[in-house]
Design a protein that fits this description.
Blueprint (H helix, E strand, L loop, with lengths): L1 H28 L63 E3 H17 L7 H18 L49 H7 L14 H12 L9 H11 L3 H15 L3 E3 L92 E4 L5 E4 L9 E5 L10 E7 L5 E2 L5 E5 L5 E3 L3 E2 L5 E9 L7 E8 L5 E4 L6 E3 L9 E6 L2 E2 L4 E7 L14 E2 L5 E2 L1 E6 L5 E3 L10 E9 L4 E9 L19
Parallel strand pairs: 1-2, 4-12, 14-23
Antiparallel strand pairs: 3-5, 5-9, 6-8, 6-11, 7-10, 11-12, 13-15, 15-16, 15-21, 17-20, 17-22, 18-19, 22-23
Helix pairs in contact: 1-7, 2-3, 2-5, 3-7
Length: about 600
């Protein structure tokens, strides 16, 4: 028992050192947080950040594997003589199908969420901690685990208490939920984040392609930029709210970033330790990935007796026994003292080489609500001589009261400069909120003057209006018009959706003020209304006006419709006098009798 305890102490000391070193290294390589004047993404109210019922945890804080990577860096893989499977550090070997799933998930979110900057190594780190890379890659050709991977029953006995949310569809438990699959989603979280990663038409949490893509979207929620240290930590903690979990994942992330290699499915290294190994079993759960070896019955070997100084084992004289160290050589004559060269100063990082940030794109931006901005925001990082500095992290942020976002829904993105020192932000998509805002670019981890580009979102507009029918608008005084007016708005020949419009019964062609008699619309209280504001065309650019009524005044009147952008259409309304009722016919006089 003492030997086991000693092993635990040593393991704890080593793993703590590994975690501390890895976290420190990762922190040094990550971009720091954005300054306070740069608005963060709307995480709390983001449409794609629905929390799970247990409170913002993908796994329900289920147990996880606590094994940490070796202290040394991964050994680069090398090929066997004559060919064969590449050999490298065992812990750096990732099962082929699992590795493929992680890389495909990274590529997918690079397209759908370009501002997230998700590295596939983060998925690998979480997959290692959650399921030992799908139990060492025990998956079929489509990526589905050979047997379901289930966490313990979340019944409140040592873990969170989460009553059933999926009727047992994913976890087979109709009473409580359990974390499911290689990425260990609880059913309620999977319901919000499920993905089809292998294109088979199914969204299966026990499929590594589906689970990896679901995890990728979950980690990118709320517009997170995982190149930012704070966003990365928040993403990991949203998966499992434990500081030890955070440090364990960060350790594997740093380890995998230093090098990995592919191994055959089913041959991955299996973890040993779980975070719940000292807790009472809360119910049936997955057994440890490796069986615990039975205690050894072989008596411990006797330690050799300590040697007497000056003697060697067996009574040999000093210096006569093989392996006895030779006495040191006599010191030679003193020579001239060495003049060591001073060490070369460390080369400054790319960001430290930047002297200024210069606008290399649009000077200002304008777009109609709902459209993409034609111009792009770009900057150039220059050194003191004006040359571009490559590999500099530049953070672009949309600041102001606006719902405009970068392509993919992010409010801020981090872009690395190219070989010429330029960084170009993704396409900016205008929201529905009109007005002005600013796109700001800063060098990450520097306090250099930012580049600011003013931008404006203008309201949708139309340049032409046309009625969809040519039927005459005629009505008898005191009655309602038989037909409602429908018009279609276009802009540059295309349907103009969402364009604001106003309809007014005007006094005359020259006087656009509202008339005080003639046709009218009905208000909420059924009283006559001759001006309608706040109208808007539908997705096809069409606008259907409410029913019109005529008062008792006959005549010809005008209805004028005007849209944002200046499109105008004036229609003629005719009100006829009421038809006089027919008078009764007098009876014919009868003929007088003949005398």
């Amino acid at each position: 028992m003492a030997a086991v305890f000693g092993s635990r102490v040593r393991r704890t000391a080593v793993t703590t050192a590994v975690a501390a070193a890895a976290v420190a290294a990762l922190a040094a390589s990550q971009a720091p947080g954005v300054t306070n004047d740069q608005a963060r993404d709307d995480r709390a109210g983001a449409a794609d950040s629905t929390p799970s019922p247990d409170g913002d945890s993908a796994t329900g804080d289920s147990p996880y594997y606590t094994d940490l990577p070796p202290l040394k860096s991964p050994v680069p893989p090398s090929s066997k003589p004559g060919g064969g499977v590449a050999i490298g550090d065992k812990e750096a070997g990732l099962p082929a199908t699992v590795l493929d799933a992680y890389k495909k998930a990274e590529a997918a979110v690079r397209e759908s969420r370009p501002g997230c900057n998700l590295p596939w190594q983060l998925l690998a780190a979480i997959g290692k901690v959650e399921s030992g890379q799908a139990r060492g890659g025990r998956v079929d050709a489509d990526g589905t685990t050979l047997t379901p991977i289930l966490g313990p029953v979340l019944d409140g006995n040592g873990f969170a208490k989460i009553t059933d949310t999926d009727k047992g569809a994913f976890d087979g438990d109709t009473t409580h939920d359990r974390a499911v699959g290689p990425m260990q989603f609880i059913p309620s979280t999977w319901a919000n984040w499920q993905q089809d990663g292998n294109g088979d038409g199914e969204k299966n949490p026990n499929n590594i392609y589906d689970a990896a893509l679901g995890a990728a979207h979950y980690l990118c929620a709320g517009g997170r930029d995982l190149a930012d240290k704070d966003d990365l930590r928040a993403a990991i903690l949203s998966y499992n709210r434990s500081t030890e979990y955070l440090n364990t994942v960060l350790s594997w992330l740093e380890y995998y970033r230093k090098g990995t290699h592919e191994v055959p499915d089913g041959s991955g290294v299996l973890p040993d330790d779980r975070s719940d190994e000292n807790r009472p079993s809360p119910g049936t759960s997955n057994p440890p990935l490796r069986p615990t070896p039975p205690p050894s019955t072989t008596p411990p070997k006797q330690l050799p007796k300590p040697q007497v100084p000056g003697k060697t084992p067996g009574g040999d004289k000093p210096g006569t026994h093989p392996g006895t160290p030779k006495p040191p050589d006599k010191p030679g004559k003193p020579g001239k003292p060495d003049n060591p060269k001073p060490p070369n100063p460390p080369k400054p990082s790319p960001s430290e080489q930047v002297s200024r940030l210069k606008n290399a794109g649009a000077a200002e931006l304008t777009a109609t609500a709902g459209d993409a901005f034609a111009g792009r925001v770009a900057v150039k990082a220059e050194n003191r001589t004006g040359l571009g500095v490559p590999k500099v992290k530049v953070r672009f942020t949309i600041s102001g009261d606006t719902d405009t976002r970068f392509e993919g829904g992010a409010r801020s993105v981090t872009v690395t400069t190219t070989g010429t020192g330029t960084a170009t932000a993704p396409v900016i998509e205008a929201g529905e909120r009109t007005g002005e805002f600013t796109v700001r670019a800063r060098v990450v981890d520097r306090s250099l003057t930012a580049v600011e580009v003013p931008a404006t979102v203008t309201a949708r507009k139309a340049d032409k209006l046309a009625r969809t029918s040519d039927k005459a608008l005629v009505c008898e005084a005191g009655k309602e018009f038989a037909d409602q007016v429908e018009v279609k708005a276009t802009y540059k020949g295309e349907s103009a959706a969402g364009v604001a419009a106003t309809a007014t019964m005007v006094k005359s062609a020259q006087d656009g003020t509202a008339a005080d008699k003639g046709p009218y619309f009905k208000g909420a209280d059924d009283k006559p209304v001759r001006t309608l504001k706040g109208l808007k065309t539908d997705e096809d650019g069409k606008l259907l006006l409410p029913k019109m009524y005529a008062d008792d005044t006959a005549g010809t009147y005008l209805l004028r419709i005007v849209t944002n952008g200046g499109a105008t259409l004036t229609l003629e309304l005719k009100v006829a006098s009421p038809t006089a009722p027919a008078s009764p016919t007098a009876p014919a006089a009868s003929a007088s009798p003949t005398a």
